[in-house]
Amino acid sequence: MDTVYRCCAGLDVHKETVAACALWVAEDGTASKEIRTFATMTGDLLALSDWLAERKVTHVAMESTGVFWKPIFNILEGRFEVILVNARHIKQVPGRKTDVKDCDWISQLLQHGLLKASFVPPRPQRELRDLTRHRAQLVGEHTRVANRVQKVLEDANVKLSSVASDVLGVSCRAMIEQLLAGQQDVAKIADLAHGRLRDKKAALTAALQGHVTDHHRFMLRMLWDHLTYLESAIASLDQRIEEQMHPFEASVQLLDAIPGVDRTVASALIAARAR
Questions:
Q1: How far apart are CA 123 and CA 78, in angstroms?
Q2: Per residue in 84-94, pLDDT tens?
Q3: What does the radius of gyration of the chain's CA atoms come to, in whole angstroms?
Protein backbone atom coordinates (compact mmCIF):
# COMPACT_ATOMS: atom_id res chain seq x y z
CA MET A 1 0.00 0.00 0.00
CA ASP A 2 1.34 3.45 -0.86
CA THR A 3 2.17 5.44 2.22
CA VAL A 4 0.76 8.89 2.84
CA TYR A 5 3.62 9.91 5.12
CA ARG A 6 7.07 8.41 4.65
CA CYS A 7 8.19 9.46 8.13
CA CYS A 8 5.59 9.71 10.87
CA ALA A 9 5.00 8.84 14.51
CA GLY A 10 2.18 7.88 16.84
CA LEU A 11 2.08 8.86 20.51
CA ASP A 12 0.27 7.07 23.32
CA VAL A 13 -0.13 9.76 25.96
CA HIS A 14 -0.52 9.16 29.69
CA LYS A 15 -0.11 11.38 32.73
CA GLU A 16 3.43 10.23 33.58
CA THR A 17 4.65 8.74 30.31
CA VAL A 18 4.27 9.00 26.56
CA ALA A 19 5.09 6.04 24.30
CA ALA A 20 6.27 6.98 20.81
CA CYS A 21 6.41 4.79 17.72
CA ALA A 22 8.34 6.22 14.77
CA LEU A 23 7.83 4.77 11.30
CA TRP A 24 9.94 5.78 8.34
CA VAL A 25 10.62 4.58 4.83
CA ALA A 26 14.11 4.93 3.39
CA GLU A 27 14.80 5.98 -0.20
CA ASP A 28 15.31 2.35 -1.17
CA GLY A 29 11.85 1.51 0.15
CA THR A 30 13.06 -0.16 3.35
CA ALA A 31 10.57 0.38 6.20
CA SER A 32 11.81 0.88 9.75
CA LYS A 33 10.09 1.17 13.11
CA GLU A 34 11.28 2.18 16.57
CA ILE A 35 9.34 2.44 19.81
CA ARG A 36 10.50 4.37 22.87
CA THR A 37 8.87 5.61 26.07
CA PHE A 38 9.52 9.06 27.53
CA ALA A 39 8.51 10.71 30.79
CA THR A 40 6.31 13.80 30.58
CA MET A 41 8.55 16.34 32.30
CA THR A 42 9.47 19.24 30.03
CA GLY A 43 13.06 18.05 29.63
CA ASP A 44 11.83 14.60 28.61
CA LEU A 45 9.35 16.06 26.11
CA LEU A 46 12.15 18.11 24.55
CA ALA A 47 14.14 14.87 24.28
CA LEU A 48 11.12 13.29 22.58
CA SER A 49 11.04 16.16 20.11
CA ASP A 50 14.74 15.71 19.32
CA TRP A 51 14.29 11.94 19.00
CA LEU A 52 11.51 12.41 16.47
CA ALA A 53 13.52 14.97 14.52
CA GLU A 54 16.54 12.62 14.37
CA ARG A 55 14.30 10.06 12.67
CA LYS A 56 13.18 12.65 10.11
CA VAL A 57 9.59 12.49 11.36
CA THR A 58 7.35 15.09 9.73
CA HIS A 59 3.89 14.18 11.09
CA VAL A 60 2.91 13.16 14.62
CA ALA A 61 -0.49 11.85 15.75
CA MET A 62 -1.88 11.39 19.25
CA GLU A 63 -5.22 10.98 20.99
CA SER A 64 -6.91 13.89 22.73
CA THR A 65 -6.54 12.34 26.18
CA GLY A 66 -7.90 14.70 28.86
CA VAL A 67 -5.49 17.61 29.23
CA PHE A 68 -2.34 15.47 29.05
CA TRP A 69 -1.91 16.06 25.30
CA LYS A 70 -1.66 19.84 25.67
CA PRO A 71 1.95 20.24 26.93
CA ILE A 72 3.13 17.72 24.35
CA PHE A 73 1.26 19.52 21.58
CA ASN A 74 2.71 22.87 22.70
CA ILE A 75 6.28 21.55 22.53
CA LEU A 76 5.94 19.68 19.22
CA GLU A 77 3.84 22.35 17.51
CA GLY A 78 5.86 24.28 14.95
CA ARG A 79 8.53 21.60 14.61
CA PHE A 80 6.20 18.88 13.31
CA GLU A 81 2.75 18.65 11.79
CA VAL A 82 0.86 17.50 14.89
CA ILE A 83 -2.46 15.75 14.40
CA LEU A 84 -4.84 15.46 17.35
CA VAL A 85 -7.33 12.62 16.99
CA ASN A 86 -10.51 11.77 18.85
CA ALA A 87 -9.99 8.46 20.68
CA ARG A 88 -13.43 7.24 19.55
CA HIS A 89 -12.41 7.66 15.93
CA ILE A 90 -9.31 5.49 16.42
CA LYS A 91 -11.35 2.75 18.08
CA GLN A 92 -13.75 2.68 15.13
CA VAL A 93 -11.01 1.83 12.62
CA PRO A 94 -11.11 -1.97 12.08
CA GLY A 95 -8.16 -4.35 11.73
CA ARG A 96 -6.18 -3.85 14.91
CA LYS A 97 -4.33 -6.83 16.32
CA THR A 98 -4.50 -7.38 20.07
CA ASP A 99 -0.71 -7.46 20.49
CA VAL A 100 -0.10 -4.12 18.75
CA LYS A 101 0.77 -1.27 21.10
CA ASP A 102 -1.37 1.86 21.02
CA CYS A 103 1.41 4.09 19.73
CA ASP A 104 2.25 1.52 17.01
CA TRP A 105 -1.37 1.35 15.89
CA ILE A 106 -1.73 5.14 15.83
CA SER A 107 1.44 5.49 13.75
CA GLN A 108 0.22 2.88 11.27
CA LEU A 109 -3.14 4.60 10.88
CA LEU A 110 -1.40 7.92 10.37
CA GLN A 111 1.02 6.47 7.83
CA HIS A 112 -1.83 5.19 5.69
CA GLY A 113 -3.98 8.29 5.99
CA LEU A 114 -6.70 6.70 8.11
CA LEU A 115 -6.87 9.34 10.83
CA LYS A 116 -9.20 12.32 10.90
CA ALA A 117 -7.58 15.28 12.59
CA SER A 118 -9.50 17.23 15.20
CA PHE A 119 -9.41 21.00 14.89
CA VAL A 120 -6.90 22.62 17.24
CA PRO A 121 -7.11 26.44 17.24
CA PRO A 122 -3.93 28.49 16.81
CA ARG A 123 -2.07 29.26 20.02
CA PRO A 124 -3.42 32.85 20.39
CA GLN A 125 -6.98 31.55 20.20
CA ARG A 126 -6.24 28.71 22.63
CA GLU A 127 -4.82 31.19 25.13
CA LEU A 128 -7.79 33.50 24.69
CA ARG A 129 -10.11 30.52 25.25
CA ASP A 130 -8.33 29.68 28.52
CA LEU A 131 -8.75 33.26 29.71
CA THR A 132 -12.42 33.62 28.77
CA ARG A 133 -13.34 30.25 30.29
CA HIS A 134 -11.56 31.09 33.52
CA ARG A 135 -13.28 34.47 33.60
CA ALA A 136 -16.67 32.78 33.18
CA GLN A 137 -15.88 30.49 36.12
CA LEU A 138 -14.87 33.43 38.33
CA VAL A 139 -17.97 35.41 37.35
CA GLY A 140 -20.09 32.42 38.32
CA GLU A 141 -18.28 32.15 41.64
CA HIS A 142 -18.74 35.90 42.20
CA THR A 143 -22.50 35.50 41.74
CA ARG A 144 -22.60 32.62 44.22
CA VAL A 145 -20.62 34.57 46.84
CA ALA A 146 -22.82 37.65 46.34
CA ASN A 147 -25.88 35.48 46.96
CA ARG A 148 -24.32 34.15 50.16
CA VAL A 149 -23.66 37.72 51.31
CA GLN A 150 -27.34 38.43 50.78
CA LYS A 151 -28.32 35.34 52.78
CA VAL A 152 -26.17 36.42 55.73
CA LEU A 153 -27.72 39.89 55.64
CA GLU A 154 -31.19 38.36 55.59
CA ASP A 155 -30.22 36.12 58.50
CA ALA A 156 -29.26 39.28 60.40
CA ASN A 157 -32.59 40.83 59.30
CA VAL A 158 -30.79 43.57 57.36
CA LYS A 159 -33.26 44.25 54.53
CA LEU A 160 -31.08 46.23 52.12
CA SER A 161 -32.36 44.29 49.12
CA SER A 162 -35.91 45.41 49.94
CA VAL A 163 -34.91 49.05 49.44
CA ALA A 164 -31.92 49.05 47.09
CA SER A 165 -32.02 47.37 43.69
CA ASP A 166 -28.28 46.62 43.80
CA VAL A 167 -26.93 45.42 47.13
CA LEU A 168 -23.41 45.54 45.67
CA GLY A 169 -23.76 49.09 44.41
CA VAL A 170 -21.50 51.89 45.67
CA SER A 171 -23.89 53.05 48.41
CA CYS A 172 -24.72 49.59 49.75
CA ARG A 173 -21.08 48.57 49.72
CA ALA A 174 -20.22 51.52 51.92
CA MET A 175 -23.07 50.60 54.28
CA ILE A 176 -22.00 46.96 54.50
CA GLU A 177 -18.45 48.08 55.25
CA GLN A 178 -19.80 50.11 58.16
CA LEU A 179 -21.75 47.11 59.43
CA LEU A 180 -18.55 45.06 59.27
CA ALA A 181 -16.72 47.77 61.18
CA GLY A 182 -19.25 47.47 64.01
CA GLN A 183 -21.12 50.74 63.45
CA GLN A 184 -24.36 50.65 65.46
CA ASP A 185 -25.91 53.98 64.43
CA VAL A 186 -28.09 52.98 61.49
CA ALA A 187 -28.94 56.62 60.72
CA LYS A 188 -25.26 57.34 60.09
CA ILE A 189 -24.98 54.26 57.95
CA ALA A 190 -28.07 55.23 55.92
CA ASP A 191 -26.53 58.68 55.40
CA LEU A 192 -23.94 57.03 53.13
CA ALA A 193 -26.55 56.65 50.41
CA HIS A 194 -25.87 58.41 47.12
CA GLY A 195 -27.98 59.47 44.17
CA ARG A 196 -31.60 58.37 44.06
CA LEU A 197 -31.08 56.15 47.09
CA ARG A 198 -30.85 59.26 49.30
CA ASP A 199 -34.56 59.78 48.71
CA LYS A 200 -35.13 56.47 50.50
CA LYS A 201 -33.12 57.36 53.60
CA ALA A 202 -36.00 56.64 56.00
CA ALA A 203 -36.60 53.23 54.42
CA LEU A 204 -32.87 52.50 54.52
CA THR A 205 -32.69 53.35 58.20
CA ALA A 206 -35.48 50.90 58.91
CA ALA A 207 -33.93 48.24 56.68
CA LEU A 208 -30.56 48.54 58.43
CA GLN A 209 -32.11 48.07 61.86
CA GLY A 210 -31.30 44.37 62.03
CA HIS A 211 -29.76 42.07 64.60
CA VAL A 212 -26.11 41.82 63.48
CA THR A 213 -24.07 39.55 65.74
CA ASP A 214 -20.33 38.84 65.82
CA HIS A 215 -21.06 35.62 63.96
CA HIS A 216 -22.76 37.58 61.17
CA ARG A 217 -19.81 39.98 60.96
CA PHE A 218 -17.35 37.09 60.82
CA MET A 219 -19.26 35.39 58.01
CA LEU A 220 -19.74 38.64 56.15
CA ARG A 221 -16.05 39.51 56.42
CA MET A 222 -15.04 36.10 55.02
CA LEU A 223 -17.45 36.48 52.13
CA TRP A 224 -16.60 40.13 51.58
CA ASP A 225 -12.87 39.41 51.32
CA HIS A 226 -13.58 36.59 48.90
CA LEU A 227 -15.80 38.88 46.84
CA THR A 228 -13.07 41.53 46.74
CA TYR A 229 -10.51 38.98 45.61
CA LEU A 230 -12.80 37.71 42.85
CA GLU A 231 -13.45 41.22 41.59
CA SER A 232 -9.73 41.91 41.50
CA ALA A 233 -9.05 38.65 39.66
CA ILE A 234 -11.81 39.35 37.11
CA ALA A 235 -10.39 42.83 36.52
CA SER A 236 -6.93 41.32 35.90
CA LEU A 237 -8.44 38.82 33.49
CA ASP A 238 -10.31 41.59 31.67
CA GLN A 239 -7.05 43.45 31.18
CA ARG A 240 -5.26 40.33 29.94
CA ILE A 241 -8.13 39.42 27.60
CA GLU A 242 -8.07 42.92 26.14
CA GLU A 243 -4.35 42.51 25.41
CA GLN A 244 -4.93 39.09 23.82
CA MET A 245 -7.71 40.50 21.64
CA HIS A 246 -5.39 42.65 19.51
CA PRO A 247 -4.87 40.00 16.77
CA PHE A 248 -8.67 39.65 16.51
CA GLU A 249 -9.54 43.36 16.56
CA ALA A 250 -11.20 43.31 13.13
CA SER A 251 -13.52 40.50 14.23
CA VAL A 252 -14.17 42.25 17.55
CA GLN A 253 -15.28 45.41 15.76
CA LEU A 254 -17.72 43.45 13.61
CA LEU A 255 -19.18 41.56 16.58
CA ASP A 256 -19.31 44.69 18.74
CA ALA A 257 -21.58 46.28 16.13
CA ILE A 258 -24.25 43.64 16.84
CA PRO A 259 -26.87 44.88 19.35
CA GLY A 260 -26.38 43.19 22.71
CA VAL A 261 -22.80 42.08 21.96
CA ASP A 262 -20.08 43.98 23.83
CA ARG A 263 -16.34 43.34 23.84
CA THR A 264 -16.63 40.78 26.64
CA VAL A 265 -19.16 38.73 24.70
CA ALA A 266 -17.13 39.20 21.51
CA SER A 267 -14.00 37.81 23.16
CA ALA A 268 -15.90 34.71 24.32
CA LEU A 269 -17.35 34.17 20.83
CA ILE A 270 -13.96 34.49 19.16
CA ALA A 271 -12.34 32.14 21.68
CA ALA A 272 -15.05 29.51 21.21
CA ARG A 273 -15.28 29.54 17.42
CA ALA A 274 -14.41 26.20 15.84
CA ARG A 275 -12.79 27.54 12.67
A1: 11
A2: 998 887 877 77
A3: 29
